[in-house]
Design brief:
The protein is mainly alpha-helical. It folds into two domains: 79 residues; 282 residues, Orthogonal Bundle (Neutral Protease, domain 2). Helix 6 runs antiparallel to helix 13, helix 8 packs across helix 9 and helix 13 runs antiparallel to helix 14.
Length: 393
Amino acid sequence: MNSHPKNCVSHSIEDLFDCIYNSGISEGFYRQIELSNWHLTLQAYLKEDLSLDQKLSCQIISWWLNRTIEKQRFLPLIAQLSRSREDGLWALPNGGAYYDYLLEEYTTLTAEKIHETGLQEVERIEKKIMELLKQQGRWNQEVSIVAHLKQLDKPRFIAERELFLILDRAEKKLGPLFPAKPKKLPTIQLGLYPEAKWGVCYQPPDIDGSRPGTLCVNADPQWLLSSQIETAVVHEGIPGHHYQRSLQMESDSHILRKKFDCAAYVEGWALYAEMLAYEEGFYSSPDYEIGHLQSELCRAVRLVIDTGIHWKRWSCEKTIAYMAHITGLPDPIVVAEIESCLNTPGKACAYKIGQMKILELREEGKRRLGDKFDLKEFHGRILSRGVVPLSML
């Protein structure tokens, strides 16, 4: 394909999007020369008269192509990640540069800044847990915070009806804070889902709308902690992943945009949804309130352990000990968290950094608009354009 749009096989921006999508790039199939040509073509299109949505789509897809082009130089190293190992990226040739690339893509921050932020967030959330326990008359100064958390973490089975009741309550309590809601509520499936290491994971709806989003709930009780149920349903369901993903699929954006993914935006939004539920008094018992804070604490710990493994050269033993000591989570979940950091470096940092960016934008909106700030409108603006890179949010 010629790099200039006037000589391109496609003469409209929509046709060009079709061409890129049909190449299979959204499924991971691409050729270097096509990536470069498409990237240059989109840059040329940005100089022309486009609608706001077309311009945003060009910028997002161009960012996506550019990151994929940069990733090419790490392909030999990426192939080694699938091998079973216990060391971070630092142990691989050019591994440090690849980790810097991943953190730039996931968070826009450096490893040093992320590690420092993680430690600060851990301290802040621990203080919040202690304050809440004191308010509830449950604090014992002779017992550590992690000991208090362990008392809550009792794995148990959960009935499908209980999950539907939580979703229904979330729709009634939190739904009014949004200008637009998905056309369909999520369905629920109980089964064995290895990917649901926190008990619940989300399967997005089909693009054609034939199947709604689904909460996949792990029937193995060791993965579903009693204090985490409500915050997990909010994260994966309403108004977390289900709202964001379903509204994205129901939009009139090009299919290429609907396929676009960015962990910091997607997971950052879901973690923001957990906090929003806390702020709005959604959690129905003191245990669920503490469970929510424990969930956020885990995401803060991820910032520390991911950079610990891949930047500070922590051993697996040290990393596991640190996470267990801070979060009080059961061993299977702690080990699964460490394995995830080893297998997908950098991604664990996306959750908290994405959430913090959304909160930062919300506070900026309040500062600028004062009494005119509308939380409902803010949520609409965050979700209305679909997934965007954190650098463009």
